[in-house]
Amino acid sequence: MRDYHGCSICGRKFPEDALTLFAGDYFCEHCLDEETIVCADCGTRLWNDSNAGSDDHPLCQRCYDSSYTTCERCGRLLLYDDACYLNNGDEDYYYLMETNGAKFLVMGLGINVDADNIEWANNVLKAYPQL
Length: 131
What we know:
By secondary structure, the protein is an alpha+beta fold.
């Protein structure tokens, strides 16, 4: 005789082998897919609200802490190796910049923003529209 258990979320009864045991409770496939995600790096299942990554790249907190950071400017998920840091005097920060549809990480160039620099930057953008 087969053992039947109720899904911890929807309450429907399923054969035990049709349910997944997660966090001490049984879940049907539908509820498991709706309420949990799998870390894209290590494969650990976690609750949706515990996602430390992004919707496109879900992460457990351990994987986020060991390999990722978030852009201070746009909030995009970045690998530590892809992040650039700028020194603003008190702390380092980094950000992803988008110009004319191209995305790149800003590196620590310190220039004064005055009329000459603005004119120079505009001339560069005109000369190199692919930027």
